[in-house]
Amino acid sequence: MASHRRPKQPSRTRVTVLTTAAAAAVALSANAANAAPSAKLSKDQVKAKVDALYEQAEQATEKYDGAKEKQQKLQKEISTIQDNVARGQQELNKLRDGLGSLATAQYRSGGIDPSVQLFLSSNPDDFLDKASTLDQLSSQQVEALKKIQDKQRELAQERAEATEKLKDLASTRTELGKKKSEVKSKLAEAQRLLNTLTAKEKAELAAKEARANRSSTQRPDLGNGTPASGRAAAAFSAAQSKIGSPYVYGASGPSSFDCSGLTSWAYAQAGVSIPRTSQAQAGIGQRLSLSQLQVGDLVFFYGDIHHVGLYAGNGQVLHAPRTGTVVRYEAISNMPFQFGVRV
To answer: Are 60 and 309 in contact (CB under 8 A)?
Structure first.
């Protein structure tokens, strides 16, 4: 006779073990599947990825430069406002002292006018709006009270402006920190990829980059390019004096540069102040096509205009390319040219 007893259920412990084992098997399978495509990259693949990361770092660098420039500008503006407020407060105190002297003189001659007494014990802002009050004051007192009210309003406006700029400064500092972290992250990722190479492969890449730097720091055949102006010639000459200087993100000379750091520094040596970032520099002058360029004109690359250099003549640009390179000449055709600008 067949037994009708229910089959024995697996214990809770056994179910837990089986579930854990199954989950581990799935995880191992997933890891194995993911591991397959991540086989060691070739030297050329690593270089391509590193170059892409360096370009992304340069994009972040230009935004970092913009935030840094904005921070410096805000700090100057806030300092100016705070100085104005301090001077205004001193003026206000003098005006109040002057009104107090009037009240003292009035008291000695027979008592303080009730309106002046009220002012000295409270804020006169809405007090002055009452014509009946003004009728009770002498012309000298009216003038003194109006000056005080005007100065109080001026100080209130300046303090409000300073408060808004301080908020803007705080958010700009936050943005600056984020962009700095982004640049560092891209550079660290590039270094991590380079560290996957063998010592021999690293040496080969380093030697190749060194050869490119050496060959590109020698003056190529620039033709008989005419400078756009005397100042453009001076700016180009200043940039030439920095050939071989290393690229460092956020740097604007005199010993290291990023791309817009070089162009802004070069024009500063020619007595011309231009904005700090490539995007801002793109909007300061006459736009030019490739055929219109003259030596010293600014030349811009990539769709988001995150790279800039100085036209060197004969299809060449003098620029600070990216991390791991130096200020050097390069063919404009090596990068996606957008337009030029004559300062």
So the answer is: no
